Amino acid sequence: DLLLPESGFQWEEKIYRKDIKEYKKFQQFLEIIAGTSDPAFKYAIGTVLDIDTFLTWTFGVILSGNFHQGNGANLVFYQNPETGKFEPVYFDALLSELSYPISVDYHRIVNRVFQINSYKKRFEEIAWNYVSDIKNLENDLEYYDNEAEKIMPDIYQDAMKIQTSYEAKEQIRREREVYKKNFLLLRSILEEKRELEFIFADETYPL
């Protein structure tokens, strides 16, 4: 579990340990995530995490259908030198069909942030602002198709790939449909209810 204070050593390769001041800031970040009560977390999280960037990142993750970046793996944070706050970096996305209600139990920060009503509402505004405009879906699919067209020649020419060219082409087709389905599912729910339902982790804080 990477989002625990005692897991700070697992981030060593991503942190300049010689900069003790910066390392302590990250340790403080982990402590706030897992080691604070709900009132203390609500007060402190916005002092170390760029909330707007985080909510936008979370929307991209949910649109992908899963938290492939979660408590156990693939997490990347950037500390913005201008604000001093941490920002999540989108990395190693994995497209899958979105289940509803949306489970956020595999990402402790999302799990805690979304239990703060003002942040949950802000997230729903971000999501609705995007999915309410069907032109965004059209643009996304156009971008997807253009990128797929660019890489297909390399896929065909790669004689060492694990998948066959046919399998790779089918995966590109399937994942395009997954993205479209996820977008339309969020659009449908928010159009009807203007809010989303989440499944939270069975955790009591501080851990």
Summarize the structure in words.
This protein has 207 residues and is mostly helical. Helix content is 56%, strand content 5%. Helix 3 crosses helix 5 (117-131), helix 5 packs across helix 7 and helix 6 (134-157) packs antiparallel against helix 7. A hairpin with a 6-residue loop joins strand 1 (77-79) and strand 2 (86-88). It has 7 helices and 4 strands. It is globular, with a radius of gyration of 19 Å. A two-stranded antiparallel sheet has the order 1-2. A two-stranded parallel ribbon has the order 3-4. The longest helix has 29 residues, at 165-193.
In a few lines, what is going on in this structure?
The chain is mainly α and 207 residues long. The chain contains seven helices and four strands.
Gyration radius, in Å: 19 Å
Mean pLDDT: 93
How many beta-strand segments?
Answer: 4
Order of helices and strands: HHHEEEHHHHE
Number of contiguous helices = 7
Oligomer: single chain
Beta content: under 5%
Sum up the overall morphology in one term: globular
**Strands in their spatial order, largest beta sheet:** 1-2
User: Segments where pLDDT lies below 50 for 5+ residues?
Assistant: none
Distance between the first and last residues' Cα: 12 Å
Which structural class do the helices and strands define?
mainly alpha
Task: Please bin the fraction of helical residues.
Answer: 55-70%
Most strands sheet: 2 strands, antiparallel
